[in-house]
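Lab notes, practical 5.
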Amino acid sequence: MLAALRDEVYRMHGELVRHQLISWTSGNVSGRDPETGLVVIKPSGVRYDDLRPEALVVVTLDGAVVDGTLAPSVDTASHLCIYRARADLRGVVHTHSPYATAFAAVERAIPVCLTSMADEFGAPIPCAAYAPVGTDAIGQEVLRWLGESPVVLLAHHGVIAVGPSPTAATKAAVMAEDAARIYYLATQLGQPDALPADEVARARRFHIEHYGQPGGAR
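Output from the prediction step:
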């Protein structure tokens, strides 16, 4: 079932490992099929070395398992909450990436002090309030903060990134960790100034309109 989406979600879990955004079995990627509305997500507690496309779990937007023999991620309810509210989103990624999660631990947003962050996000990365794992509470909190930025920090927890595909959401998670790391390192030298809002908007618009190859991935 949903072989192409399974393969993409599987490969994006590999990117979490490659970019060191997770540890042991933590974190997860999901993808929503636009035709059926079904969601493919990582099974709970499975090591990344043991993960295979066929081990992924397929669930409905209400959380019913329709394909797979393993229990889905404990974060499934949060992913589904986001998908139900945002029909434009087809990928959700959750990580505990070290630098971004450090900001979440102290409940601090990450301001736009880098042109790369302006390009990718067009806004600061906000920090949502704490919400318990296991229900849709995290999803509800993320939805309150989702705006221009496709990434929201979860206070005392980690990171949620969203996008029009699992690949896009994973890229957002990677770039958020990169921005958090650079911002943290810069604070060791001084206090970085945020870019003016009009320049952030200009840089974001230029990136959308001109970066990358015509018709290709950005």
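Observations recorded by the TA: Residues 166-187 form the longest helix (22 residues). The chain has one domain: 3-210.
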